[in-house]
User: Fold these one by one.
Assistant:
Number 1:
Amino acid sequence: MTRTLLTGNGAAAWGMRLARADYLPAFPITPQTEIIETVASWINRNEIECRMTTLESEHSMLTAAGAAAATGVRVFSATSSQGLLYGMEMLYTVAGWRAPLVLVNVSRGLAAPITLEPDHNDILAARDCGALQIHCATCQEVLDSILLAYRLAEDWRVRLPVIVNLDGFYLSFTREPVQIPEAAAVNRFLPPFDSGNLCFRASAPTSQAVAVLGGGPYSYFRYQAYLAAMNALGVFEEIGQEFRKQFGRSYDLLDTYHCDDADILFVMLGSFATKAREAVDHLRASGQAVGLVRPRLLRPFPKMALQRVLAGKQGVAVIDQNLSPGGGFLYTELATALYDQSTAKPLLVNFIGGLGGRDISREEFFEIAAETRRAVTAGTAPLPRLLFTAAELREVRKLQAIAGSRREPPRREP
Amino acid sequence: MAERYEIRFSGAGGQGLITAGIILAEAAAIIEGKSALQSQSYGPEARGGASKSEVIISDGPIDYPKATIVDACLAMTQEAADKYANGIKKGGLLLLDDDFVKTEPEGDFTIYRLPIMRMAKEDIGREIVANVIALAAVIGMTGVVSKEAGEEAVVRRVPPAFKELNQKAFALGYEKGKALLN
């Protein structure tokens, strides 16, 4: 095992390398491009055996990826933000094909305005496509999650594409010490892809599926894909334990921190949760029983695991790094997950933070905890609240003044 | 909680300040075995434009990977000084390129100046080593990693043909950086 400094993008490339992916269809986009560049340089130096094809769009890239995976090839690809959205049509299609490829998405906020920095509206747009989602908080987790993702995708009980998500800049361009596992150990954990009878032979062409189906068979196949996704919860726990035995690092459905004795919990996705983790230490030092829950698997949603960890808590602050009508995505999803229990539920309070990579300060986590306590006392949650400071508003006003924007509504002639 | 030391290198894109950050993080994390990480940020430009690289070094685990309030900051250009020489800890230090930063940022920290680009050009003969001089000066001023670990990390990063050139640049930067504090 080698300990080295890797960016999140470098860790993703190493995950692909150790997984021995055979095929890489590619299209560039910031902040993901470094992944493809790294793999391309290895191919160029004959360090790995992999066929790389540059396509003219993410739509074609995902089509190529799905077609290859459906014929028994281990496929890897990566995209980000607008690119993921451009390929969205094919995400639904390859999930319907049950093509077990692994796609990395480096989260970046969606236009407009254009930003290069991260939030989760891109990856969450893919929440209903049928592909599974693993969300990472560290560079080590990126590498390890890609190995887990192949096991999950290729498991015969699942057979679905898996998207591994990491935050742009915060992980993509941050170097952390990463343990690169030995190839032999990875080969034991992740043997070659056994696609069963699915393969491509030019001499014996076969058809895998009928292109157009009516309501009954259509419902059947979409529902099968749904059931397969639900199987992934159990399979993930199983392979997580195997991973721990092989490599000594554990990956459960949820990453929990000081939850047992907490009365208030933070719930967050991705690398910004490391900021919450640090804030929990400081809140605890000031005598507040606060904990943190970070779902690793977002699709399928680990509902039962969340119900268990949230049981008996007074308040839960859901900090969404995305924006959607009705509140953040995680907030509405969590509310749904708790609603089918007749027992007392914690009060959910929604905060929107980290849009376009906007930092969340320690003071804001203290304020979030305080506001959640106030809501618990009042017995009612306020509307979702955007984390935003007066200083930030002044900056925006300056920009507006430079742009000569008019903020008043147009005057009507009498 | 663990001792945490944060350093920011800033300048123009292409000056090698991201590389300087990587080398410092490698000196701390790989050679000295401490906890360290490095992050970077830049605008949409491929060259030019302000760029920054941040390194966090700690004797314990680091939960959050972004620098929050830095102990030491380097600014190689006026644009970088205007944009990135903020969020410096009270009593921290700011190192400026003497020729390229005319307007000094204001704050509760000590400002030091070195003609880094000029030293690279005139004393070493190659502008390309300005980042190594700057890195060595910061190491000399802060002692955040040892001189030996810093030099070793530089040597590991550069092609063998440029080993001596970079060692010379490192020695010069370290000596001038240390002398600033006397």
Number 2:
Amino acid sequence: MLLATQNLQFPPTRDLIGLLPELILSGAFVILLMLDLVTPPSRRSLLAAVSLVALAAAMGAVVWGWFDADHARTIYAGSFAYDRFGRFVDGIVIASAALTVAISPDYLNRRGLHFGEYYALILAATVGMMLLAGAASLIVIFLGIELLSISLYILSGFAHTETRSQEAALKYLLLGGFASGILLYGMALIYGATGHTQLTLIKQSLAGSSGTDPLFLVGVGLLFVGFAFKVSAAPFHWWTPDVYQGAPTSVTTFMSVATKVAAFASLIRVFTYTFADSTDKWTGIVAFVAIISMVVGNVAALTQTSLKRMLAYSGIAQAGYILIGVAVSPDPLGTVGSLYYLAAYAATNLGAFAVITVLAGRGEDLDSYDGIRGLAYRRPYTAAAMAFFLFSLGGFPPTAGFFAKFLVFSAAIHAHAVYLALWGIGTSVISIFYYLRVGLLMYTRPKEGEETYPWARTSLAGGGVLAASAAGTLVLGILVFLIYTAAVSAQHGVLPVPQQLA
Amino acid sequence: MTIGITHLLVVSAALFCVGVFGLLSRRNAIALLMSVELMFNGVNVALVGFARFGYSNLRPLSGMAFALFVITIAAAEVAVAVALLLVAYRRHQTVQADELDELRG
């Protein structure tokens, strides 16, 4: 019966074009796996170059898609959203992947981990994130999450001879599987309550109901818990510090940024836009998780002595700030604030982790606070870049972090949720302490004859990535209207049918 | 008594809860992996149950297709998990989760 009513021809061209960036990267994934077989070990940087070309091509397709997706529509029978919202997030994800690939060859060579699968897996994870960002069906959301997660499980364990890396991979896999199970159960209940897996149809069938079906409400709760795991919001964050610390730093760079961006995009699409008619049922929980994340992340970061763990807890706190934009639904300003915050977070956090990656010497990763002591006297430019990123994470003007926080907090005030803004401002003040502590350590002159960490020489590619991240952080902090207009435009087009900005 | 959606949902919830309990109580990584699989299969029972006995306006094919996807991906996840476990076992001669605990803080 169902088969007869649907037109089951081969996907028409417009559907294929809608997936063009994903198709390019999937093709590059296969090519990379085969190229790896014929590339001699000493020339594996070639594979990085091939990945960069593919990512550049995909970025081109995304930019073209941004203009083409002016009139948002769903493709593949309503399971994938072809809209500006998805393209905006795709752009951030691809840029993060490209910058990560650019710093990787030197780092992997120093650590003795330079294998070709690395680049293929990064591309596979990128495809998963892009699918997640555009997913307009519960099935595709699940596929996207698993594609990115499984690739990242392997990447976290990429330093396969090190206990820490193995442990991080196993922890990530078991807790990630746990989170996926909860997420799936939520999806199954929502399917049972609404009868559909496509977000547009779910939204339609919710419009007629009061939204108090217990099946539906439990489903929404479980779905939110699953997403909270993936974006590492407290109290579902305990895997984050361990995995970030144990994984090779270049992998942490990528996953701390891109995973969070993609998962937040999907969270916003599902909650703010699909469950738009029952916001009063779930915004309270989101606001609660946002506050817990801000408090736990910032307070726990104070006591850390590991750079990667400190940044992990800082990432948990940032997830709390981004959640404010979801908690104020259906206010469209919240989505714009969250999108801006995601772009700012990507530029800044990628830069901070890239500094640790670029400096890591042979053998052990650069991780402890002691390792960064006196950096400014040996590597003044790198230290300046790191200080700049820390300022942005702390939310000082004129950096990206300042305007991101400003937009999210003003959205909270606009939606009459002043308490969220107050919690945000209060916890931001706490965060200044630990960011400044790291900043001051870099500018502490090492004592006479004291050994410093054997920082690696910054290569051209490494310096370029740091410069690009710093430029991104600066542009997002000064030329605010550039990304702000883009975020507004992305919010206007988001599927399923958005609330318009007044 | 005829079997209906209620029975299937009870089975599904029971399977899911056994999985969650196993994840929280077991220490052997293989047992943890099996618990994750139980959770996934609990979901499958729910999906197929809804597809067969759910509301009349429900699209049955979506639920069954979803269950197929879940089965496939669970298999992919196990493949990666077992590989990671083997690497860890080769180095530590153990797969007890509480003996692999270098990361703290």
